[in-house]
Amino acid sequence: MSNQVRVRLAPSPTGYLHLGTLRVALYNYAFAKKNNGSFILRIEDTDQNRLVDDAVENIISTLNTIGVDFDEGPNKGGDYGPYVQSERLDIYKKYINELIGKGFAYHCFCDKETLDEMRTAQIERKEDPKYDRRCLKLSKEEVELRISRGDSYVIRLKMPDDRIFSFDDAIRGIVEINSNQIDDQVILKSDGFPTYHLAACVDDHLMEITHVFRGEEWISSTPKHLWLYECFGVQAPKFVHLPLIMNTDHSKLSKRKNDVSVENYLQKGYPVPAIINYIALIGWHTSDDREFFSLTDLCHEFSLDRVNKANGVFDIVKLNWMAGMYIREMSNEDLADKCRPFFENAGFDVSDQRKFLAVMDNAKDRIFCYSQAIEHSQMFYKDLSFSEEDQEVLADADSQNVLKYFIDNADNIPWDDNEELAQFIKAGSKELGIKGKKYFFPLRISLFGSSHGPDIPKLFAILGKNETIQRMEKVLH
Q1: pLDDT per residue rounded down to tens, the chain (477 residues)
Q2: Is position 255 annotated as part of the catalytic site?
């Protein structure tokens, strides 16, 4: 095994990058950078029935967008490739044959019906359901005969009986599991592809992986992996079993029930730094417990001793709050650059940079993702429609007088000075003798389409002279 820290992210391309997988990626990346090590991307595509066509491309593009750059992997290369498991089948075959030759693995010809019957009978006897090793008793000649006639089979790993497997987990300390609790795992499927257990162990050994970051659900499988390494006569990597990510009701974060794809949050326009910041904090904390930090800060701060043992909680309300805080720290120019594609895709002309920056300034305090800006800004870019109640307000004689006052004084309004503009609008109320809702509602409705919205001076500033007057003239009788 290498003396240099080498870690890997090994997602299955059965869907887009998951929030939980992103957390594993962030911790791997930060740990590698902190220790001057290497971060490897490996695609584990041995489950051929569940592959999603563009999943690999999505995983790579999402990591690039997030800023988590791998040192070795698909499309990048390296000295330990190939980095896609379906391209490594000959390698696994060599190790399978070695295990069979040493008596550590055996052929199993049992079909699904046989296995189901076996499991049902064991449950009825109140036994732990596991393979009863009936095919282990087959002679070499019987195995060769069944293979020659085309019988379907898998290869199982023969676990030792009544043995305590002990390992020092980086998060949980010493973990001990008795082998009697563990089934003889299938390590080669009937389609010729290895299962995760064999392929991951072989690859982690050959790629000289020093630390394996993965979810705590893999703890119960670790004895199988330790046994495989022992059978091969090689050293096992250090295991880092991370706590699970749960919903606020403590149910498991699930692809079926939750919006768990990182791509979904990127498409909605959540700020990337906020995604990184929030996901990293689910199960880990900085030395000073601060809430806001960058990816660079994470790499500098990351330490395994500050990873929690308890499960973390994904709280969309907290993510939205954090994303909003990041947006409010952005300049109007930067926010405009991020939001512009969403407006253009929705068909809005945002070529007037002065107006668009003013629109961004208005939206900034109201949103937590860039796509939301449209909801709070589209009224500045489309023809307004009015409810019956708003039409009645606009038709009122006082309302008409208010609108006519501003149209008539368009050239006297200090459009370019916010303070003087606010004073001018305030003075208009006094001059007309119209106060409160009777004064402000017709202005806001005519310019914004609703009696509730931004302050009147802000509406004037966003729309500018020409558009402000044009909108008033449209509702002047």
Answers
A1: 667 999 999 999 988 999 999 999 999 999 999 999 999 999 999 988 888 889 999 999 999 999 999 999 998 999 999 999 999 999 999 999 999 999 999 999 999 999 999 999 999 999 889 999 999 999 999 999 999 999 999 999 999 999 999 999 999 999 999 999 899 999 999 999 999 999 999 999 999 999 999 999 999 999 999 999 999 999 999 999 999 999 888 888 876 556 789 999 999 999 999 999 999 999 999 989 899 999 999 999 999 999 999 999 999 999 999 999 999 999 999 999 999 999 999 999 999 999 999 999 999 999 999 999 999 999 999 999 999 999 999 999 999 999 999 999 999 999 988 899 999 999 999 999 999 999 999 999 999 999 998 999 999 999 999 999 999 999 998
A2: yes
Q: Tell me the C-alpha distance between 194 and 433, whole Å.
A: 84
Residue 75's Cα: distance from chain center in Å?
22
- Confirm if 134 and 110 have CB atoms less than 8 A apart: yes
334 close to 272: Cβ distance less than 8 angstroms: no
- As a whole number of angstroms, the distance between CA 150 and CA 477 comes to 89
Q: Does this model's pTM top 0.85?
A: yes
Radius of gyration from C-alpha coordinates of the chain: 32
Which of left, alpha, beta for 50 (phi over 0: left; psi -120 to 50: alpha)? alpha
Catalytic residue among 93, 102, 252, 255: 255
Cα 25–chain centre separation: 10
* CA atoms of 171 and 451, how far apart (whole Å): 56
Q: Return the C-alpha torsion angle 154, 157, 158, 163, nearest 10.
A: -150
180 Cβ partners below 8 Å, 6+ apart?
A: 161, 162
Cα–Cα distance measured from residue 131 to residue 183, given in angstroms and rounded to the nearest whole number = 6
Number of neighbouring beta carbons within 10 Å of residue 84: 16
Determine the Cα–Cα distance for residues 102 and 10; give it in Å rounded to an integer. 29
Phi-psi region of 451 (alpha: psi -120 to 50; beta: other; left: phi over 0): alpha
In the chain the first and final C-alpha atoms are separated, in Å, by: 84
Q: How far is the C-alpha of 120 from the C-alpha of 468, rounded, in Å?
A: 76
